[in-house]
Structures are given as structure tokens and as C-alpha cells.
Amino acid sequence: MNNRLSFAWKFSAAALVSYSMIAGLASSVPRLFILNETIRNLYFHVPMWFTMIALMAVSLKHSLASLRKPSLAGLELDRKAQLAAEVALVFAALGLFTGMIWARFTWGAFWTNDPKLNGTAVAILIYLAYFVLRSSVEDPEKRARLAGTYNVFAFVLMIVFIGILPRMTDSLHPGNGGNPAFGSYDLDSAMRAVFYPAVFGWIGIGLWIVELRVRLSRLIN
User: Fold this and answer.
1) Pairwise CA distance, residues 147 & 149, whole Å
2) Distances in whole angstroms, Cα of residue 25 to Cα of each of 22, 28, 106, 193
3) Is 159 exposed, middle or buried (0-12, 13-18, 19+ CB in 10 A)?
4) pTM summary value
5) Is 176 in a helix, a strand, or coil?
6) Whole-angstrom Cα distance, residue 23 to residue 187?
7) Which residue from 17, 21, 113, 186 has the fewest beta carbons nearer than 10 Å?
């Protein structure tokens, strides 16, 4: 039964991503001022960030569990936290790349002095420091405790820098600093029919990649 459920959600994730990629490029989109056809990037850029946050939450969950189990089980949970954070950073890089391409065609530059962009950069640096911390401690149990504790603060700071602070000031990003989100002025149901499957599909793919990384790590070690 577990194998069937595992296959079902993985197949569903792959199907949703495939659908969103095809529909995202082929379906019709509203002709909004400045955005025009670049609005299609909504199907690719935003799901990367949702997936990153979801995987960071998974990493946080494993870190919290590892702090409660300072043993071999705790070390295994710490390894899962590390691998989930690694995959999350890959999606963060994809989110940055797709965002920079979008910014070039809508804002005229790959990078602007925008609170959301700067907050995202800081959040990524915070998580890069997480891996620096891990590599600087040789003792596995001590590394798990330090990394687990740091991961808690890193997740909280990430939410602050990408979700709270940008909403408290002016920002070019939709949904921040008085700039309305897409949903508040774009009521195109066809876009929602592609966007939400893309979000859930990419999160599923991200979780699948983490699972594969964990299994590979066990084989190597």
C-alpha cells in the first residue's frame, strides 16, 4: 500500500509539472501593461520559491526532531535536514535565475535595489552559512546540535526577510509594499488552472529529489 501511495504522489507531481510547463507556454494569458507575454514566467518563477520554502520547512522539521534525539537516530535526521536544505538552495537558485530574467524584461535590469530581491539574497546567504557551519565542525553529534539550532534561526530569518520586511516598504514585487498581488487585479481563471498545479507539482518534485538524495547518501555511507 505504501509503495502504491508513493508511486501515486510522485506520478501526480510529474504529471502536474508536465502539464504546467506545456500549458504555461501554450495557453493564452492576459495582456497586462508592461508584463505582456512575460507573465508566463509566473508559472515557473513563483513555484520555485514555494518549493524552496516547503523544503526549508522539511529541513527545519528534521532539525527539530534531531535536537530531541541526540543519538544515531538524531544523526540520521540531521542528515535529512542537510539534504533537504541543499535541494532547497537549488530551487532558490532557479528562483533567482528566472526572477532575474523576468526583471530584465519588465524592470529593465537583472537586479534592482528592491527589498524582496535583497531580502532573498540575505536569506540565501544565511543558509549558505548553515553549510559553512556544518563543514567547520568535525564531531557528528556536536555538528548536529549546532546545525539544528542554527537551522531554526535560519528559517525564522528567511520568513522575515522574504515574507515580512518586503511587505512593510515599497517594492516592485506584486503583493508587497502596496503593490497589488496578481490575484487582486488579474482574475483570469485560466492562469490559476496552470499556476496552482505548477506549485503543487514542483513541491512534489522537490520532495522526490530529497528522497532520492537521502537514499543515495545511505548507499554512499
Assistant:
1) 5
2) 5, 8, 18, 13
3) middle
4) 0.88
5) strand
6) 18
7) 113
